Amino acid sequence: MLTVNTKAYGTIEVDERQKITFSNGLFGFENLHEFVLLDAQQQPFYWLQSLEVKETAFVMINPGVFRTDYHPEIISADMVDLQLENLKDPSALIFAIVTIPENQQKMSANLQGPVIINKEKKIGKQSITIDSCWKTKHYILEELAGSRGKAC
Fold first, then answer.
1. Strand ranges for 51-119 from DSSP E
2. Is the dihedral of CA 134, 41, 34, 56 positive or negative?
3. What is the pLDDT of residues 47-99, one digit of tens each?
4. Strands (E), 1-150
5. CA distance 52 to 99
6. What is the pLDDT of residue 151?
7. pTM as predicted
8. Which run of H or E residues covers position 141?
């Protein structure tokens, strides 16, 4: 077990298997490499908590929850870094970082910069999708309410 100081839950014990290494960090946080993936108390969200800086944590969501047509295309070098054949690989987990503003109705997910984790190797990478239809702000509640499954 790992003892982790978290932004959301204080000090908690987590399974070692929840530790993910991001050798390049995340965009804007390139100096942080060790994280744990936690289930958030509110489903369908997750926390990606830095092990190096307690105050650094990201709310994440599986984009398929609100965009069933989300299939990011990323460069082959990123796939090599992640040691994955493709994103349909059962070891691949795909997440989007969520931004929750004061008006929670405008909560958005970054589908342009997916966070991809190889759950078997315990490594992750934030990538940029090649497909220009995915943006940095997709409004989760709006898309859940009306445009579920529509082409991007």
1. 57-61, 92-99, 108-109, 115-118
2. positive
3. 999 999 999 999 999 999 999 999 999 999 999 999 999 999 999 999 999 99
4. 2-6, 10-14, 19-21, 34-39, 45-50, 57-61, 92-99, 108-109, 115-118, 123-126, 138-139
5. 21
6. 58
7. 0.91
8. helix 140-145
Query: How far is residue 88 CA from its own chain's centroid?
Result: 16
pLDDT digits (tens, 9 = 90+) for 86-135: 999 999 999 999 999 999 899 999 999 999 999 999 999 999 999 999 99
d(CA 11, CA 117): 24
Buried b (16+ CB within 10 A) or exposed e, 21-57: ebeebbeebeeebebbbbebeeeebbbbbbbeeeeeb
- Please give the C-alpha separations between residue 34 and each of 21, 71, 107, in angstroms, as whole numbers: 5, 26, 26
Contact present, 61 and 140 (Cβ < 8 Å): yes
> Which residue is associated with the tokens 């909560």?
107
